[in-house]
Structure formats: structure tokens, C-alpha cells
Amino acid sequence: MPPEESISVACIYYTMKQGGGGQMSVRSLVRGLDPERFRPYLIIMHREPPEIDLSGMRVLPTPPLSGRVPHGTQARFALSVARLVRRHRIDVLHSHVAAGGVTVDGPVVLLARAAGAATVRTVRAGSALQPEGRGCGLLSRALHPFTDAYTVVSPDLLEGARRVARVPQPKLHAIPNGIELAPFLSPAIPRREMRRRLGLPADALLMASVGSLHAVKDYPTMLDGFALAAPELPGARLLIAGEGPERPALEAQIARHGLEGRVRLVGMRDDVPELLGAADMFCMSSECEGMPRAAMEAMAAGLPVVATDVSGLHYALDEGRAGLLVPPGEPEAMARAIVRLGRDPSLRRELAEKARRRALKEFSVETMVQRYENLYLSLRGHSRKNPV
To answer: Residues 375, 325: contact at Cβ < 8 Å?
Structure first.
């Protein structure tokens, strides 16, 4: 496609600070678009060091915002984006911050649409579609006429988008997140060596978990479940990789259970593929998810997964066919699943094989990017044909 005919796409996200799955997914999308057909740009609402690697990406400058969710500066930011849309002749403006509410990206969507861009809004968090929570305000129905397409990052979120947010069916698409598979298929450090570096016995039953230490991840349920399972699995160990505000409370909980020698919070890691390669099983206890990157990475690494049966995880584990699902907030159910998997090597192998096959088929970056490319192609010129 000649350069003048390529489609220019600008993706907006809150931040590119290290430590979030959303940042990685947006970066993978912007980097992965076919340069023969697309001219991708990135707009970052709030610059927070340290950022993930953005080398080789077109990052468009915008006015600094006062915080992660901008209050009082939305209009200035939205006007800046509208000018960028005109200057760079942006064909598609893709907001990945729909779960932050209409006050975050609403002005951007309206002014970008008026400036001639087709608009896409993506919901990345299942909590944005909870009728008893913030959901009804997060996807304002007033924006529906000015939004050309909505996407959710898991089919589990489709019903909420239809029922709670009342997104018109023709505008609604499910495009699951994708990950770079290669690092998890062949970790750079062998399993035995990684265990040595972690100070773990070669024959320990190692359960891993990866995620930010925030309340929505509900690590207390995981720790309570592990404490119940520990007497029946005397060789079991648990490593949790991630950081966040819940760390002091989790450290205190580990101490109350007397698990200091068996549970470790190992902080932020840049060797997650190797950590997963050293593990025997993976666990998530979230109250709610969008499309959890950590679970997809564990599946690609060939780990059997125990997880709560919530949005995102339900889909990732193929409704329980590619892993064990337990009710959220129930440590006893978590413990039973951990013991069942820990005691049964053949079940671990069976679920590991199913998990990896599913990850290879459904969760690659290439698959995600191709689906977004098809959506962008379908929207080219849509706004200029249907102006505000």
C-alpha cells in the first residue's frame, strides 16, 4: 500500500510505566501493526518513570496531566489530541482508557471524531461492567453515537457491555489480548539453574503467581488457601512476583500463618519467563479480570493453572477445560484445587498440555494484531463519511 494510502492509527493509554499488563498489550499492538498498511502512533496521558521500552515508536507530544486520571485538564488534553488528529491526518483514534470513565476519554473521543477520525473505545477491566459498581458511568451511553466501535478484551465481557453499558451490538467486538509467546516457550535460563538462583530445592513443588499487589487480585484468598493446603503438600512452595500497596498486609498474613519459609514475595521481576519455567503450577485468585496477561503467560509456559472463576479467567481457561476454576473469595475451594493438582502429576501434565495448546492457538500477539487490523480497515474513512 502506498504511504499516502496507509491508515494512520493513534492509540491512547494512561501510562507506559513499568508494571502493568495493559501497557504491554498497547505497546504490542502499536509495534505489531503492519507498516506497509498502517502508520501507528502512541499518545500517553501521563508520563511516569520508569517506562517500558518505547524505542522505535512514534509517541505524539501532549500537554502534561496533573495525575493518572486527569481532573481539570481534560479539555486542554482533548484539544491537543484533536490538533494532532488534524496535523497527522489520523484515520482511527483508539482509546484504551474507556474503563476510566467518560470524564477521562469522553472529550478526546468527541473532539477527535469532530476532527475527522473514526473512534474506537476498548474496555480492559471487567470491573468497568459491574452493574453494582462503577460500570454504568464508565461507558456513558451519550458517547455511543460518536464511537464507531467498542472492543472488550475477553468474550466474557460482551454480556456486560450489552446489558450494563448498552453498547449497540453492531459496534461491539471481542478482541482478546495477546502476548509474545517465544520467551515462555523457551526460557533463557534452564529450570534447574533458575531454581538454584531462587534458592529453591530442585524437587520442591513450586506454585507461582504474577500480578500487581492490589486488592482486586485478592491475594489473601490465595494465601489462606495455600495455608490450608500446606500440611498436605509438605514440599510445596509459593512465589508471588509483583509489587503494590497490599504488600505490607500480605507480609503480615504470611507471618500469621507461619509460612515465611514457604511463601516469598519476590517483587517486580524482569525474568518472568524463567520464573514460570522453574514452576510446577500457577495460581490466580482475582476478584475480577479483563483478560489476564499473567494467566496467558503461564499457559504459554506450559503450566497447569488454578484460578478463580471470574471474567477473563473463565475464558482464558476455556470454561475450566484448560485449568481448574474455583469460586472467588473461597480459600477452602482454592486449597482443594491446589491439593488436587499438587498430588496428581498426570493431571498437571494433562492440563499443562491443554493450556499451552490454547495459548498457541488463541493468545499470540500476531492474532490480536490481525484482529485489530481488520477492525481498523473496516473503519477507514468512517468518521469523515459520518461527521459529528
So the answer is: no
Boundaries of every domain in the chain: 3-177+365-385, 182-362
- Fold (CATH) for 182-362: Rossmann fold (3.40.50)
Q: Tell me, what DSSP letter sits at residue 317?
A: T
Residue with C-alpha cell 491508515? 7
CB atoms within 10 A of CB 278: 26
Phi, then psi, of 7 in degrees rounded to 5: -95, 125
Helix (H, G, I), strand (E, B) or coil at 385: helix
Q: Is the fold of 3-177+365-385 the same as that of 182-362?
A: yes
Identify whether the C-beta of residue 195 lies closer than 8 Å to the C-beta of residue 303. no
Cβ contacts of 337 within 8 Å, gap of 6 or more: 306, 324, 326
**pLDDT tens digits, 49-103:** 889 999 999 999 998 765 554 455 678 889 999 999 999 999 999 999 875 555 5
Residue type, 137: G
Identify the pLDDT of residue 1.
62
Please say whether the beta carbons of 291 and 314 come within 8 A.
no
Phi then psi dihedrals of residue 163, to 5 deg: -85, -45
The CATH code of domain 3-177+365-385 reads: 3.40.50.2000
Give the separation between CA 123 and CA 119, rounded to whole angstroms.
14
Residue 176 scores a pLDDT above 90? yes
Lookup: cell for 79: 484539544
**Residue 238, C-beta contacts closer than 8 angstroms, at least 6 positions apart:** 206, 207, 208, 209, 222, 223, 226, 259, 262, 263, 264, 283
Confidence of residue 238 (pLDDT cuts 50, 70, 90): very high
Per the omega criterion (within 30 degrees of 0), is the bond before 327 cis? no
Q: Which residues contact 358 (CB under 8 A, 6 or more apart)?
A: 299, 316, 318, 322
